[in-house]
Design brief:
The chain is α+β, with helices and mostly antiparallel strands and about 525 residues long. Helix content is about 50%, strand content about 15%. It is built from 16 helices and 19 strands. The protein has helices at about 20-40, 65-70, 80-95, 100-120, 125-145, 150-170, 175-190, 260-285, 300-305, 315-325, 380-400, 410-425, 430-455, 460-470, 490, 495-515, and strands spanning about 5, 15-20, 50-55, 60-65, 145, 200-205, 215, 220, 230-240, 290, 310, 345-355, 355-365, 370-375, 405-410, 475-480, 485, 495, 520. The chain has a 6-stranded mixed sheet with strand order 8-13-12-9-10-11. It has a 3-stranded antiparallel sheet with strand order 1-2-19. Helix 1 (about 20-40) packs antiparallel against helix 4 (about 100-120), helix 5 (about 125-145) crosses helix 13 and helix 12 runs antiparallel to helix 13. The longest helix is centred in the middle third of the chain and has 23 residues, at about 260-285. About 45% of the residues are buried.
């Protein structure tokens, strides 16, 4: 067996290392399986949370069971482990959910591959078997899919079931009915659009999670300036990112010589007149609400108040981008060309109270599908995790609206795919059949892990499910509440077809990539000063 030897070949520069053959393959397998084992306990409705603590000066902590968030926060040295971190991130970006499942499945495929490699089966044979098994699993998954897009009432119920299933493994599981309705209402308002930017999420500490609500409109977490109108109907809104703080002399690294204080007063007056001209230019655009990304000092605020214009300062950048999007305006930084400015509009702007905080509410915005979800909760950690959970649900629902196929959850599709893959293995001659069988065992590890995390006897339950799935037209999966096999249709446990398909494809491709490795080369960084 080859060992890691610094610069073995004599070709690599000083400080470089290479691992060859079995050593390299073993290092890849061990790293990938360690990452899979790390997030495995978070899978399923009874999955546990992890506390992630920053070792930096801020000493921040994060409590989460979201696979992508956990893996994103880790510093990983093993190259194969980084591949799994990347597929988890891609899964999160593509479909929003299934980030833990994809890593666990890839880890199980590599665990099975390791045993096959020890039996002297060539990695390329294993890869060929895995590819055939993946095709068979995909075909079976497509046959299992249900589509109710032609029946709006049934489709809405499917969306509610998917949202509840997604939220079951999150912090929102106690109030999943409430949050499933919030998420479905928000996504259906988009009318098929894939732009989740128009769904704004605001977090406010205080109250309970159950007090969270959906508001039809846009809420900006800012206060209205002093002495300005608190309510405006038929608002014309200019969203800007411009300096409104030059009414005082600010000289950096420059020197101004004057021979009397009167000259200083003249400079101040010139500054004020310049600011007055800028503000009057803005007011002349025919607006009655001015939202700025930067500070608005007292002098321009006073001019806005005298003109009856509502001025909102220091709106966060995400906030003004969203506000410009939903009101139909554009962010401006110069005001010399009125024809190039695009004002936003809404029917009503008013100040509202949430808990003890005052916020600004824009209702009747131009983009009718825009809405705001206000999350309430006991602490910032609870709210952060609630936002991640809700974001996952929104992403999955958005995918389902675009591809309306759904499948039963609770380990049902994995058991069905494993059955078909095993049948294929029985018909396949040669060593490839061993790899196809291994793929089936890896698929069954998903419901097995769900059982283990719920404290159930996974061997007993999986054998019951295998017997149930030997029958035709079964819908049995894992019922973690009662601790037995249950009918997924009756329990209302549904999953998005698109998410499950992405899990199978990504996990297979990642395991194939790691299986191909037969050498790891660690290059030393080039020394400074070298030609």
């Amino acid at each position: 067996m080859a060992m890691a030897v610094p610069g073995t070949s004599g070709v690599l520069g000083q400080g470089a290392e290479e691992q060859k053959g079995e050593t390299a393959r073993l290092a890849s397998f061990v790293g990938a399986m360690a990452i899979a084992d790390l997030v495995k306990t978070t899978l399923g409705p009874k999955g546990m949370d992890k506390i992630l603590q920053s070792m930096g000066r801020s000493n921040d902590i994060m409590v989460t069971n979201d696979g992508a968030t956990i893996l994103k926060s880790l510093y990983v040295d093993n190259p194969a482990a980084k591949v799994l971190v990347d597929i988890s991130r891609v899964q999160d970006d593509e479909v929003g959910d299934g980030t833990t499942s994809v890593v666990v499945l890839a880890g199980e495929l590599l665990r099975e591959a390791e045993q096959l490699v020890l039996q002297k089966i060539h990695p390329m044979t294993i890869i060929a078997g895995y590819r055939q098994a993946c095709e068979a699993a995909k075909e079976r998954l497509a046959l299992l899919a249900l589509n109710h897009s032609d029946n709006q009432e049934k489709f809405r119920q499917d969306l509610l079931n998917i949202a509840k299933t997604t939220l079951s493994s999150k912090i929102l599981t106690q109030d999943k009915e409430h949050f499933a309705r919030l998420a479905v209402d928000a996504v259906l308002r988009l009318k098929g659009s894939s732009n989740l930017e128009s769904i704004h999420i605001i977090k406010k500490t205080g109250g309970t999670l159950k007090e969270s609500f959906l508001d039809e409109g846009f809420i900006l977490d800012k206060r209205i300036g002093v002495g300005q109108p608190k309510r405006i109907e038929n608002a014309k809104i200019l969203v800007a990112n411009t300096a409104m703080d030059t009414d005082k002399i600010k000289i950096y690294g420059a020197r101004v010589r004057v021979d009397s204080m009167a000259k200083v007063a003249d400079i101040e007056k010139a500054e004020k007149e310049k600011m007055r001209a800028k503000v009057e230019n803005i007011i002349s655009q025919g607006l009655n609400c001015f939202v700025n990304r930067q500070l608005i000092y007292n002098f321009p605020e006073e001019i806005f108040a005298d003109a009856g214009v509502m001025a909102i300062e220091h709106a966060d950048f995400d906030g003004i981008e969203r506000l410009a999007l939903v009101t139909g305006g554009e962010i401006a930084s110069t005001f010399d060309s009125p024809d190039k400015l695009k004002l936003g509009s809404c029917k009503l702007i008013e100040e509202i109270m949430i808990g003890e905080d005052k916020l600004i509410h824009f209702s009747g915005v131009e983009m009718g599908e825009a809405c705001t979800i206000v999350l309430r909760g006991a602490s910032s950690h609870v709210l952060d995790e609630a936002e991640r959970s809700l974001h996952d649900a929104l992403c999955v629902l958005q995918q389902t609206v675009q591809d309306s196929r759904v499948i039963y959850g609770g380990g049902y599709p994995e058991m069905q795919m494993a059955k078909v893959v095993e049948e294929k293995a029985a018909r396949t001659p040669g060593k490839k059949s061993l790899a196809i069988e291994a793929y089936a065992r890896a698929l069954r590890a998903i419901p097995g892990t769900i059982c283990d995390n719920a404290g159930l006897d996974s061997a007993e339950l999986i054998s019951q499910l295998r017997a149930a799935h030997a029958e035709e037209d079964t819908r049995m999966g894992v019922d973690v509440v009662l601790g037995k096999a249950g009918d997924m249709s009756e329990l209302g446990i549904y999953e998005c077809y698109r998410v499950k398909e992405q899990i199978i494809l990504s996990a297979t491709e990642a395991s194939e990539m790691i299986l191909r490795v037969d050498e790891i080369i660690k290059c030393a960084p080039r020394q400074r000063g070298e030609e």
